[in-house]
Known about the structure:
The protein has helices at residues 18-24, 35-38, 42-54, 69-79, 99-114, 129-141, 155-158; strands spanning 6-9, 12-15, 95-97, 144-153, 164-174. The chain is an alpha+beta fold. The protein has 2 domains: 1-63, no CATH class; 72-175, no CATH class. Strands 3-5-4 form a 3-stranded antiparallel beta sheet. The chain has a two-stranded antiparallel sheet with strand order 1-2. Helix 4 (69-79) crosses helix 6.
Amino acid sequence: MSSAKSFQSPLGSIPVDEAALDQIRNLPAVTTLDAAHDHEHSLEAHLPFLQIALDEFKLVPLVVGDAAANEVEVVLNELWGGEETCMVVSSDLSHYHEYQAAQQIDRDTARAIESLNWQELNDPRACGCHAICGLLRAAREHGLRCRIVDLRNSGDTSGRRDRVVGYGAFVFTEN
């Protein structure tokens, strides 16, 4: 976790949820490490969208790094709340395959995510597989279902198709 008290985006400041961080601070897999956030851009990419969609909210910024899926699951379960809680897990999918190969790999990954089958995911399928697997484990425990919103890769937007990066958007809801 970060020691920052707020995060900034072009749309303004987002306060960090200090109470939530205090709630997980003593878990074995949680530590304060600002350097982990230095080169991590996924949070910055999501913040403006969250600010538009949610208006005002508090943030619990965590970088998973090498934490195991079961450790991520413990953290998510500790933070799990009611309808007021929104969890966003971010990861690219496959990296640097040819367009059609990436489509197949990412479709297989999407099927595993939709079926909450965390055992099928690994690093080549998604660089953030530990975070995704932790979410899938927690989602299964909480009786959520998952549906895909969209699945694309960089070849769909940049035009270059010899080395693409996969992306997917998924929504988890109660059964």
